[in-house]
TrEMBL record:
PANTHER family: NUCLEOID-ASSOCIATED PROTEIN YEJK (PTHR38772:SF1), PTHR38772. InterPro entries: Nucleoid_associated_NdpA (IPR007358). It is found in: Cytoplasm, Nucleoid. Coiled coil: none annotated. Its main location: cytoplasm. This is Nucleoid-associated protein. GO terms for cellular component: bacterial nucleoid.
Length: 334
């Protein structure tokens, strides 16, 4: 079992604030594994993650982590102090929040991680064993609140990137308070890293025969999107190996060779940014009257662009749109 410790506490900050503390750690069982797995899945599916570190040497959370690392605090004591300080910060900012704060230490062969998330319930009704109707509530993973992950090994080494945070449903008013409390500073520009890498992939694809180049670029984007869903890095060498069958056998350079020749300073591994990926997957634009979105694969095929007149010519329209246009034409003629 990869979970070493886990606990949760309830914090309500409203007209009156209450902090309900769980006295002991959770037993390490399958239900706990399932809970953390669902939290991680929801976290990895978020597009708005930020990567960085603690800004202040004497920040609250950083100080607590150092005390825990030196065994001056137990895991349970770490979380209790974390919540007490968070309660004070939210009250001081006159903000409101309600939920359960879950903490878990996870250790695998590769990593030692500290997860922290605000969990919220959704309410409903159910049929019980007696087939009576009664109120019920479960954790709403679709509305996972603020949280993140600390790479404890990287934190101990004071690397530049060891803290990942993400805001969730209903966090907008709290964002400033939570960032200040965590004392977070962004040290990684994932959008810039993704765009630079995809530009070099695009340049390499253009060096291949047209059809092969289009397929290579498509597979590269699919690979990056899949890594994003898994919460994994994109490593240039690994990606080049996975999609090497898209490169014609007579091609002299691999993607790795092309990068070393054209842009050797490029990051060879990076965190994929979902918004940046979408820019390379689709062309989009809208005004008050018109909204257009199409896959980049269609440009030059079913969609032609005339740069002189700045016009698009579209063939093979969606059947539903054709039907609507015919109906509109008949209405106008009538």
């Amino acid at each position: 079992m990869s979970i070493k410790h886990a606990i949760a506490h309830q914090l309500v900050c409203a007209s009156e604030s209450t902090l309900t503390l769980r006295p002991d750690l959770y037993p390490l069982d399958d239900s706990l594994n399932t809970l953390l797995a669902q939290i991680k899945s929801a976290f990895f599916n978020r597009a708005s993650k930020q990567y960085g570190q603690f800004d202040n040497a004497n920040g609250t959370v950083k100080t607590l982590l150092e005390q825990w690392s030196s065994q001056d605090l137990s895991f349970a004591e770490l979380t209790v102090q974390w919540l007490k300080q968070l309660r004070m910060a939210i009250e001081q900012d006159e903000q409101e929040t309600e939920g359960y704060w879950f903490f878990a230490e996870e250790e695998t062969e590769q990593d030692r991680l500290l997860w922290f998330f605000q969990l919220k319930h959704k309410h409903g009704i159910k049929l019980n064993k007696s087939i009576d109707i009664e109120a019920s509530s479960v954790i709403d993973f679709a509305k996972l609140g603020f949280g993140g992950c600390i790479d404890l090994a990287a934190f101990a080494q004071q690397e530049q990137k060891y803290l990942t945070i993400s805001f969730g449903f209903g966090d907008r008013a709290l964002q400033s308070s939570l960032v200040n409390f965590i004392d977070f500073v962004d040290t990684v520009n994932t959008a810039e890293d993704t765009e630079r890498f995809l530009e070099i992939v695009k340049a390499y694809s253009q060096s291949l025969p047209q059809e092969a180049g289009g397929n290579y670029r498509k597979k590269a984007l699919e690979y990056c999107a899949e890594q994003d869903k898994l919460g994994e890095l994109v490593v240039a060498d690994e990606m080049a190996e996975v999609i090497k069958d898209q490169v014609p056998s007579q091609t002299e350079q691999s993607l790795t060779d092309f990068i070393e020749t054209e842009q050797p300073e490029l990051k060879k591994e990076f965190i994929p940014n979902r918004s940046a990926l979408k820019k390379f997957q689709r062309y989009t634009g809208k005004t008050k009257e018109v909204s257009i979105s199409f896959s980049n694969e269609n440009l030059g095929k079913t969609i032609q662009f005339d740069p002189d007149n700045e016009t698009l010519t579209i063939t093979h329209l969606p059947p539903s749109l054709v039907k609507q246009l015919h109906s509109a034409l008949r209405d106008n003629e009538g």
